[in-house]
């Protein structure tokens, strides 16, 4: 039976508390969640990996158990947080999803102790294909106490093509039905962080040549059912820039595969790559 992950904390370089949840036995592996998600969303993936690895699911800043984003928030702070967890655990393997994949890539180019890195559709912007012009509009909705409209604005701007075709009022109605109770509360709690995170994605637009500095062997995962505009160009530029990389596509998965129905498949591929 799955065991309850042990909760631990470290202090990042700026003194911020960063929590992480540990389960399993074997080589140490860090899981880095993306925007609007946290360590709890990756529980099933962690359990699927726990037979082969000691899995540490990072509760990134701005999430319950960890400290706030802070006034100096940026990718450097995220990298310092991940480096602090890596130092505490001794992990040499890292898996990052979406914005967490961007954090993982940025950390790996700063930290040569990461020997193998897996990123699933990382939030790497190429040519401004990940939009950020929606952020001020979403911020105004949050400031007015209208989080569902902020969320709808976010989804229309950054989601799949089906979402992008909807007017905001319709998307808000759809989201009210799809997200209820604790699920809705979590999204609303993480919306502010998501705006800051996407601002960092935009700031790092076309910085992919920096990933020539990554010494880790990298597996780039994509979902065959993803239709995000940036995905193809970002994958192509990353394979050109990274010194050692390969691409693996899961035909039946979309962007949320690692924590929505694709956990077993992703875990199997992760294990094969990391233990090879």
Could you walk me through the main structural features you see in this protein, from its secondary elements to its overall organization?
This protein has 276 residues and is of the alpha/beta class. The protein has two domains: 6-125 and 207-274, Alpha/Beta hydrolase fold, catalytic domain (Rossmann fold, 3-Layer(aba) Sandwich), CATH 3.40.50.1820; 135-202, no CATH class. 42% of the residues lie in helices and 17% in strands. The chain contains ten helices and eight strands. The protein has helices spanning 43-49, 75-89, 99-110, 135-143, 147-158, 161-164, 168-178, 181-203, 231-241, 263-274, and strands at residues 6-11, 17-24, 28-32, 54-59, 93-97, 116-120, 217-223, 245-250. An eight-stranded mixed sheet has the order 1-2-4-3-5-6-7-8, sandwiched between helices. Helix 2 crosses helix 3 (99-110), helix 4 (135-143) runs antiparallel to helix 5 and helix 4 crosses helix 8. The radius of gyration is 18 Å and the shape is globular. The two termini are 27 Å apart.
**The CATH fourth-level homologous superfamily of the largest domain:** Alpha/Beta hydrolase fold, catalytic domain
Order of helices and strands: EEEHEHEHEHHHHHEHEH
Number of strands: 8
The CATH topology label of the largest domain is: Rossmann fold
Return the CATH class of the largest domain.
Alpha Beta
Shape: globular
As for the number of domains, it is 2
Major sheet, described briefly?
8 strands, mixed
Low-confidence stretches: none
What integer value in Å does the Rg equal?
A: 18 Å
Cα end-to-end separation: 27 Å
């Amino acid at each position: 039976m799955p065991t309850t992950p042990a909760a631990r904390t470290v202090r990042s370089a700026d003194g911020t508390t960063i929590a992480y949840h540990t389960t399993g036995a074997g080589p140490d592996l860090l899981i880095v969640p993306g925007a609007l998600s946290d360590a709890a969303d990756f529980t099933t993936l962690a359990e699927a990996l726990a037979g082969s690895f000691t899995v540490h699911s990072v509760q990134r800043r701005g999430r319950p158990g960890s400290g706030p984003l802070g006034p100096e928030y940026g990718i450097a702070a995220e990298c310092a947080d991940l480096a602090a967890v890596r130092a505490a655990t001794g992990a040499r393997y890292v898996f990052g999803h979406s914005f967490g994949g961007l954090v993982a890539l940025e950390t790996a180019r700063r930290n040569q102790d990461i020997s193998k890195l897996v990123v699933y559709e990382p939030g790497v912007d190429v040519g401004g294909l990940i939009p950020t012009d929606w952020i001020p509009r979403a911020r105004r909705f949050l400031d007015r106490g209208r989080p569902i409209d902020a969320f709808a604005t976010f989804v229309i701007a950054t989601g799949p093509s089906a979402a992008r075709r909807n007017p905001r009022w319709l998307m808000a109605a759809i989201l009210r039905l799809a997200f209820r109770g604790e699920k809705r509360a979590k999204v609303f709690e993480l919306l502010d962080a998501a705006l800051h995170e996407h601002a960092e994605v935009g700031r790092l637009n076309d910085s992919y040549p920096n990933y020539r500095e990554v010494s880790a062997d990298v597996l780039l995962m994509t979902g065959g059912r993803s239709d995000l505009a940036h995905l193809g160009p970002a994958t192509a530029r990353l394979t050109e820039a990274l010194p050692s990389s390969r691409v693996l596509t899961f035909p039946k998965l979309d962007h949320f595969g690692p924590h929505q129905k694709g956990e077993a498949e992703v875990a199997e591929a992760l294990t094969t790559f990391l233990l090879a």
